[in-house]
Amino acid sequence: MIETLMTRRLVLRPVEERDAARIQSLCADLAVTRWLARVLHPYPDGEAARFITLSRERRHKNWAIELTRADWKAAHLATIGGGRDA
Q: How far apart (Å, rounded) are the C-alpha atoms in residues 77 and 45?
């Protein structure tokens, strides 16, 4: 089981199904995906849920980064050691 890291300003935790809508939204935005090496554009519906499922099955280290202040809207994703298909 992967641990969750919490500080006063952020939470670093494994990606979960609840993150799919936010990932889907961000990856559908060309202003975001133009900076990413391996993200399809347009980002197909359901691709975020597929990404989360495949990441879990392949034991890739995908982390959701949440900022703890309610007025900070950003949420991020970091991948450590991901494969070509995730």
A: 18
pTM over 0.70: yes
Q: Count Cβ atoms within 10 A of the Cβ of residue 12 and give its class: 0-12 exposed, 13-18 middle, 19 or more buried.
A: middle
- Residue 41 CA: distances (Å) to CA of 16, 32, 47, 63: 22, 10, 11, 22
Mean pLDDT calculated for residue range 44-70: 84
Contact criterion met (CB below 8 Å) for 30 and 41:
yes
| Beta bridge mates, 79 | 62
Give, in degrees to the nearest 5, the angle at Cα 44 between 85 and 56.
40
Identity of the amino acid at 35:
W
Whether 73 shows a pLDDT value over 50: the answer reads yes
Task: State the burial class of residue 48 (Cβ atoms within 10 Å of its Cβ: 0-12, 13-18, 19+).
Answer: buried
